[in-house]
């Protein structure tokens, strides 16, 4: 797994991955970079900003926006981007203003795209699931759903039992599933339905494998129990 190299996934869409162990498994974590029409870069769930990563980003465009997925996922290292890029705008996810008092944020993400990227990226706020107040993004140009913990693509039981031969299932990590007693099932269903309004083919998961094709069908199938 690379630690600093950016991989082009589709036009104007890159990722970089860093190692992360979870319950004994190497699941990694993924940052996404979207290049906007004016050359500005939006970074979702930033990775540690090494000099190599910085050089790679600077070749792509102008790092302008850094956004986390949630108060749990993707807010580490934001301060490194503030230091490296004085003009960068950092956005908070719900709950993060309280948690990262050390950071100065320029905005708070909601279910409505910011004017800075409206028309190029859509976004929604996932609601109703304790510990999973996440902002999901949709990049229409590449038909990509970009998530943090909502769509971890690894199943611990699947790995244990089938040694990875079965198709993995999309869903939050075990920790969220166990602790995340639904506080509002209707809101969860509404949030899932909102995501399914997007016509996505690919899913960039926060951890685990990327879903390159058939993403919307896989999403609908794996979350079917919660959609009923
Ligand atoms: Fe995560």
Notes on the structure:
The protein has 228 residues and is an alpha/beta fold. It starts with 6 loop residues before the first strand and ends with a helix. The protein contains eight helices and 13 strands. A seven-stranded mixed sheet has the order 1-2-5-6-7-8-9. It has a four-stranded mixed sheet with strand order 10-11-12-13, with helices on one face. Strands 3-4 form a two-stranded antiparallel ribbon. 25% of the residues lie in helices and 23% in strands. The protein has helices spanning 51-60, 78-84, 96-99, 156-162, 174-179, 185-196, 215-222, 224-227, and strands at 7-10, 13-18, 21-22, 25-26, 29-35, 40-44, 62-67, 89-92, 107-108, 122-125, 135-139, 144-146, 202-204. Helix 1 (51-60) links the parallel strand 6 and strand 7. It has a single domain, classed as 4-Layer Sandwich (Metallo-beta-lactamase, Chain A), CATH 3.60.15. The chain is globular and about 45 Å long. Residues 73, 148-149, 206-207 line the site of fe (ii) ion.
